[in-house]
Write a structure and sequence with these properties.
The chain is of the alpha/beta class. The protein is 30% helix and 23% strand. β4, α5 (96-104) and β5 form a beta-alpha-beta unit. α2 (22-37) packs parallel to α3. It is elongated, with a radius of gyration of 22 Å. 44% of the residues are buried.
């Protein structure tokens, strides 16, 4: 819910723009940090969710590490000031240049996703006379019960090493003198709201940790990934239940005294902290459809076009108006039929110039913005 003061302030900012509530962001980060501290869990922020500089500064200052999936993210994490000993580098397709740059930064760990990648990192580390710490990302074949396009832990997905390849993986690790095996890594998907899914993951983590230990490997790190979802339908219920989330892992993971448990949270930390604020350019009323055409489009918020993601849509100008409502298809100006934020959205009767908020855009919003149709950079505003 936005205050009248917020809405008055928005009227003076050129739309479309991303609005960040930094107070809410800090509250979310603090709540997560406190819940993790109870169990001495380690949290790395998944930078792919949002790399807005102000957001990253808040996250770094909270003491979290950085989970990176590209060389650019590793570079940005180091530039912002994340402790290099808390930077991990995942990703199914790391280039030689990206690996070399990360080796030069002496990052905490590479989360390795194929046997061939192990061999490449070993070769590149040898040329630099470096020792690379690695964790093996294992595909546990656990269904995350989320959207098909953001599931990552099934046999059909491209991520991680499949269980039947682990014997060859273990042999490769023993032969690679420049690699230091430190643990195992998992990530089963994103926007997970059924916490029972994580119980199934814990069972698999326990099994794979035992498998490596039986073969003489010391498993120091259990990295269980992230994927904790947010409530897109009720964005004012803003902070996820981190206590319940971490308790699942405390209750069901078999953690040795010398082991650390690591997490990679992204959306849950930043998702509710931002909204995309747009202005109504035109209203087109027809016999079968009524359209609201915004000045924001899929170039500013890709998720609905990419995987039919839901974002709550609110008319801020008519906030509190309940006597009249109309069902609209809320669309953008881009020359693509998929440039649509919502169909049959019930809103107060809307007029040209009204301010519209697309809620819960802090994760995978601004970072996915593009210049398609030669669109200009999306603007950004903050509130402490």
């Amino acid at each position: 819910m936005f205050s009248n003061k917020d809405i008055t302030h928005f009227a003076n900012i050129e739309t479309p723009f991303y609005y960040y509530d930094l107070t809410l962001l800090q509250n979310t980060l603090d709540t997560c940090a406190q819940a993790a501290k109870v169990y001495n869990f380690h949290v790395h922020y998944a930078m792919k969710a949002n790399f807005n500089p102000m957001v990253l500064e808040k996250i770094k200052s909270t003491g979290f590490g950085a989970d990176c999936v590209s060389g650019g993210e590793v570079k940005k994490a180091i530039e912002i000031g994340f402790d290099q000993n808390k930077v991990v580098f995942a990703g199914v397709g790391k280039s030689d240049k990206e690996i070399n740059d990360a080796l030069d930064q002496d990052i905490f760990c590479f989360n390795v996703e194929s046997i061939q990648e192990l061999e490449v990192i070993n070769e590149l580390a040898a040329k630099r006379a470096k020792k690379a710490r690695v964790a093996i990302r294992i595909n546990p074949n656990v269904d995350a019960h989320t959207h098909h396009n953001i599931t990552t832990g099934l046999d059909e997905n491209k991520f991680g090493i499949n269980s039947w390849d682990l014997p060859d993986c273990a042999e490769t690790l023993k032969q690679c003198a420049q690699l230091e095996f430190i643990g195992i890594h998992f990530h089963i998907g994103s926007q997970i709201t059924n916490l029972d899914v994580y119980k199934n993951l814990c069972v698999r983590v326990n099994e794979f940790a035992a498998w490596f230990e039986e073969r003489g490997f010391l498993v120091k790190v259990l990295n269980v990934g992230g994927g904790l979802g947010i409530d897109y339908h009720n964005p004012d219920q803003q902070v996820p239940d981190f206590e319940a989330y971490f308790k699942i892992f405390n209750d069901f993971l078999e953690v040795r005294s010398n082991q650390e448990v690591h997490f990679e949270l992204g959306r849950a930390l930043v998702g509710q902290s931002s909204s995309l604020i747009s202005k109504v350019l035109y209203v087109k009323n027809g016999k079968k459809k009524n359209f609201i055409i915004l000045d924001a489009g899929m170039t500013e918020l890709m998720r609905p076009a990419l995987y039919q993601a839901y974002h709550k849509i609110e008319n801020l100008t008519r906030q509190g108006v309940t006597d009249t409502s109309v069902k609209y298809d809320v669309v953008g100006p881009i020359c693509e039929s998929t440039d649509c934020f919502g169909k049959e959205v019930e809103l107060p009767e809307t007029s040209r110039g009204d301010l519209i908020a697309l809620r819960s855009t802090g994760a995978y919003g601004e970072v996915m913005a593009s210049h398609y149709n030669l669109r200009e950079n999306v603007n950004v505003a903050y509130s402490e």
